[in-house]
Amino acid sequence: MRRVLSLAGAAAIVAALGISVAGAQPTPPTRFFGTAQLDGRAAPDGTTITALVAGKNCGTGSVTGGSYTVDVASATTLPGCGTDGATVNFQVGTASATQTGTFQTGAFVSLNLTAQAATPTPSPTPARTATPSPTPARTATPVPATPTRTATAIPATAAPQRPAGSPVAQRPAAPAAAPALPRTGADATDSPATGAVAALAGIVALGGAGIAAFRRRR
């Protein structure tokens, strides 16, 4: 009885092991194939084609003659990868392909891929800042010293001296009467020459005043 149970138990264990072994077997991948274009033309030979499931790399291939082939691993082969109905994304080089595929265990799927490489955004050219020109320092213009004017002494003009008061005109004193000469006779009184001699003698005796008076009388 014990042997029967042992055989039965062994059979159960084997059956259980067989089930577990069958569950652990990897399922076939999904193979994608077709053409690959990059930037509107056939991708260069050697360009890498990457298959992504939920962002995980589940298979890679390469371009040859413009065509590619990629086997996408199943989740039983590579955890986190393909399960039936899962969406598969592709990259051509580093550019994301527009098309997507669907994982199907053991299926062969034709899918042509097109991708556009990202155009690098040109760095903005920094605006050139105008360098301010240095302001030339103003050199002070020396102001010529104004010569100090020395006051010229104006010579004092001597005031003309005027005699005090109006000068009194001096008039010659009236000549004194000539002294009568002694008469020597009748001839002396009557002769004009004798009178003139007498007058002249008187004038000489009186000096300058007599001469002036004699001239006025003449």
Described by its quaternary structure, the protein is single chain
What is the overall silhouette?
rod-shaped
Tally of DSSP helical segments: 4
Distance between the termini: 226 Å
Assigned CATH architecture of the domain at 26-115? Sandwich
Examine the coordinates and then state which fold CATH places here, giving the name of the CATH topology of the domain at 26-115. Immunoglobulin-like
Low-confidence stretches: 1-11, 13-22, 184-190
In total, the number of strands is 9
Task: Provide the β-strand percentage band.
Answer: 15-25%
State the CATH superfamily name of the domain at 26-115: Carboxypeptidase-like, regulatory domain
Mean pLDDT: 74
Q: In this structure, how is the largest beta sheet organized?
A: 5 strands, mixed
Structural class of the secondary elements?
alpha+beta
Helix and strand string, N-terminal first? HEEEEEEEEEHHH
* Top CATH class of the domain at 26-115: Mainly Beta
Rg over CA atoms, rounded to whole Å, is: 82 Å
Share in helix? 10-25%
How does this model look, in words?
With 218 residues, the chain is an alpha+beta fold. Among the domains are: 90 residues, Immunoglobulin-like, CATH 2.60.40; 32 residues, no CATH class. Helices cover 24% and strands 23% of the residues. The chain contains four helices and nine strands, in the order αβββββββββααα. Strands 1, 2, 5, 8 and 9 form a five-stranded mixed sheet that branches. The protein has a four-stranded antiparallel sheet with strand order 4-3-6-7, with no helix packed on it. The longest helix has 23 residues. The radius of gyration is 82 Å and the shape is rod-shaped.
